Structure formats: structure tokens, C-alpha cells
Amino acid sequence: MFLKAVLLILLSISSISALVGRTQSAAVRGVLICDGRPAIGVTVKLYDDDRGLDADDLMASGKTNQRGEFHLSGSEDEMTPIDPKLNIYHDCNDGIKPCQRKFTIKLPDSYISQGKTPSKVYDAGTIQLAGSFPGETRDCLH
């Protein structure tokens, strides 16, 4: 009887582990500018894009430094491959409009790593925020 109980516990633990999934990670860096000057204090967030009804999983967030630079790295446990994306929230050339401009950059699958520490960093390059971006929206609650 004791052996059956131990076996049942071990099977339950392995089933739970299988449901949680495997740890995957991603990292992204870049520089944001507004009209040729560093975009300082811009909010950037790295998410695992969960399509459908499930909310996206926040993997990392931060703000650009005095040179407009950012670097984010994060991980998530998923059964299927993660879909990393970078959201950028800013007010460059926005006047007095409410909320912030928001656009998303999807990271290529080749930048997904197994484990908590990414083996590659996606370089988003230098992004001029003054223009408009495909799919750009406004976000008040980020």
C-alpha cells in the first residue's frame, strides 16, 4: 500500500511538471531616439505573446537610460514555444494627446533559448520614434 502511494505521488509530480512546460527565454536590446536625440525614460516590456483568451506573460520590463539604450532579458515556462515580443510605450512627437503611443516588435523564433538564460540577444537596432509604425495603438494602462 505504501509503495502504491509513493508511486501515485511521483506520477502526480511528473504530470504537473509536464503541464507547466519547459523554461524558455529571450533577450532584446536597442536604442530609442526621438527627433535625433536619445529617448530617455521610455518604457519597454518583453512579453510572451499568448494568443487567444489568455493574457500575455510579462517576462521583463524597464526604461531606456540617458543614451536611450535598453536591454531586457526574461524567461517563461510554456509547453509550446514562447512567442517573444517587445512593446514600446512612448510620447515622442505626441503633443498633449492622452495615453502613450505603443507599438510591438515580434522577435524571431531563432532568438528563443532553452533555460532561464538566453544564449542570443535580439538587437532591435536604433529606432527613431518620431515616425509612425504599422499596428501602432494607444495604451493608457500598461
TrEMBL record:
Keyword Transferase appears in the UniProt entry: no
InterPro entries named among the record's database cross-references: Transthyretin-like, Transthyretin-like_sf
Localization (cell): Secreted
Signal peptide positions (record): 1-18
Top-level taxon: Eukaryota
GO cellular component, one term: cell surface
Keyword terms of this UniProt record: Secreted, Signal
Record-stated family: Belongs to the nematode transthyretin-like family.
UniProt xrefs under PANTHER family: TRANSTHYRETIN-LIKE FAMILY PROTEIN-RELATED, TRANSTHYRETIN-LIKE PROTEIN 5
Descriptive protein name: Uncharacterized protein
Organism this protein belongs to: Caenorhabditis angaria
